[in-house]
Amino acid sequence: MNRHYETLMALLRARHSCRAFAPRPLENAVLDALGAAFAQTPQAGGGRGLACTFITDAARLRELAEAGTRAFAALCDNIPSAFIREEMQRYGENFFWFGDAPALAVVTCRKPPAFLQAALGDKAALQWGGELSGAMAAFALLLAAQTLDLGACCLTGPLAVWQEMENRLAIPKHDHLVLLTALGYRKDSP
Ligand SMILES: Cc1cc2nc3c(=O)[nH]c(=O)nc-3n(C[C@H](O)[C@H](O)[C@H](O)COP(=O)(O)O)c2cc1C
Question: Domain for residue 112, yes or no?
């Protein structure tokens, strides 16, 4: 196989989710480089309003994670079935650890237009491809993070309380939160 394929495969093999980060901030040049990789990916229809914003303020990140934890606990408390409530509580254990990450990428896309919702119902989002475009761009972010010796982990768990997350992140009404990505230098890196 050619050199480019080998390089790509080495990158794919080396990438693993990272959930423990060194207490070292990400330099602006690094954030710019990550943003450029995100922006380079294709979008359905040539444009689905994809955006990637980085939160690096430690207090804001902690507040967001704490608010998510509280909202998720309230959601679980309101589940009448003890079995489903306990399953959800267990399922949610890996959703809100991102409060300690040095940076969080917030990926959003434009919602499908009303005519598509009316014509296609719950398949509108899939056909519109906004979230899928966001997911592809997030993978570019993961690969770019790998080349920059950063650890990263995508998170859709927090979308269990998407309304709380979108309100706290002040996401405009015509946009959707697609996913979050925790980023930072790995705790165990030299
Ligand atoms: C779309 C997506 C959502 C994810 N959501 C979460 C999450 O909410 N919490 C979490 O700890 N990990 C999350 N992960 C990380 C996966 O658990 C992880 O990628 C998977 O276990 C494979 O491990 P690897 O990334 O090390 O190869 C998510 C990964 C993807 C691709």
Answer: yes
Contact assessment for residue 150 and residue 183, using Cβ atoms and an 8 Å cutoff: yes
| Residue 100 lies inside a defined structural domain of this protein | yes
State the DSSP H helix or E strand holding residue 17, giving kind and residue range, or none if neither: none
pLDDT at 190 over 60: no
Cα of 50 vs centre of ligand 1, distance in Å, is 21
Tally of domains within the chain = 1
pLDDT, one tens digit per residue, over 129-153 is 999 999 999 999 999 999 999 999 9
Ligand 1 and 56: CB distance under 6 A: no
CATH number, domain containing residue 151? 3.40.109.10
Query: Domain range for residue 130?
Result: 28-38+48-185
Q: Is the CB of 155 under 6 A from ligand 1?
A: yes
95 close to ligand 1 (CB < 6 Angstrom): yes
CA-nearest residue, atom 18 of ligand 1: 17
Region of 131 on the Ramachandran plot (φ > 0 left; ψ -120 to 50 alpha; else beta): alpha
Residue 9 included in any domain: no
In angstroms, the Cα distances linking 64 to 57, 71, 88, 98, 121 are 11, 11, 20, 9, 31
Distance from the CA of 141 to the center of ligand 1, in angstroms? 14
What are φ and ψ of residue 176, in 5° steps?
Answer: -120, 145
Ligand 1 centroid – CA 13 distance (Å):
15
Query: Is residue 97 situated within a structural domain?
Result: yes
